[in-house]
Write a structure and sequence with these properties.
It contains eleven helices and eleven strands. A hairpin with a 2-residue loop joins strand 7 and strand 8. The protein starts with 11 loop residues before the first helix and ends in a 7-residue tail after the last strand. Helix 2 packs parallel to helix 5. By secondary structure, it is α+β, with helices and mostly antiparallel strands. A six-stranded antiparallel beta sheet has the order 1-2-11-10-7-8. Strands 3-4-5-6-9 form a five-stranded antiparallel beta sheet, covered by helices on one side. Helices cover about 45% and strands about 20% of the residues.
Length: about 375
Amino acid sequence: MFGSMRAAPASVEDLADRDDGISLRTPPTRAVVLVTVAATVVTIVLGVLTGTAVLLLGLLVFLPAFAAALCTPRQTALVSAWVSLIVVVPVALSGERIADRVVLALFAVGFGVLAVYASRLRVSREGALVRLRSTAAAMQRQILRPLPLLTDEVLVDGVYEPVQQDKLVGGDIYDVAATPWGTRVLIGDVQGKGLAAVGMAIDVVGAFREAAHREPTVTALVDSLEAAVVRHNDYAEQRGEPQRFVTAVVLGVDSGTETQLVTCGHVPPYLLHDGIVTAVGAGTEHAPLGLADLVEEARTVSWFAFPAGATLLLCTDGLTEARSPGGAFYPLESRLAGRADITAGRLTDSLVDDVHAFTAGAQQDDLAVLAIRRSPRQVPG
């Protein structure tokens, strides 16, 4: 019963020709025909002018190879059939030795068949990669919500760039939850890289989304994230994989003038207001998630003023530890000083463009930057 509900798998030609989410970029058939005819005309004209038409026609044998690298199997078959016709007929009627004519004709037909096979193989492999990337993009949308995000208390905008662009998802994480207790915001960085780090990222984001709506306090929310990291590490240990920790910042923003902050070994937030840049939560850092058992001090909430119209910048160390070609670290605080009064979206885009210029385009780590703009209507005047 269920089998009848499945869609039939797409053929190689359909995959290359159709224009949907997993289509491949191939030239239009009209352009293929025009190029093929033009190459044929040029070859014939040169052959007539030089008196070696039959010999130059042999060069057309390689035209299907170019088609195989760029075109669909149908287009490649069209080019191969055309070349076989153009080469075989004149060669068969020429006065060349019979052995030479047979060899050239066999080359034309054989190269055409191989070109069609190569095109099918190429399209099949590219189709698999396109489908894999489409799946990764869908997974990214589930793990990391598209920005900007708007709640009753704040507008959150930002930029997320994994160091391996083809993977779309890295070890940096963020999320925003509108809860009965206000807006909860998470930004974090999983230790290490690779699929294991992505697995930890999925668990932490999932725990945040569940606990943010269940726990009335920010400290209880952070405790839930700690438990999720510990559970993940227990499973990793059973599989013989290394344990990991997660640095994080968790915010609780309500309609009041002050905001709750718990920093777990992460880059401190920066508050931008009235042209002034201030690091908040300095000296209140706690152990990263997964390492709470190593310290006696319990995690507590610190409070800071988050006035109307202010912007709070959160980032991962992909920004603060970015290096110039000379080895200097990116001076985030001084670069923020000249951007204290621009909008949230422009702030993050401007910072990312600036760090790319600073590093000469050499991205060394995953990068996540969030700008949180306080909604003026939520703060009592």
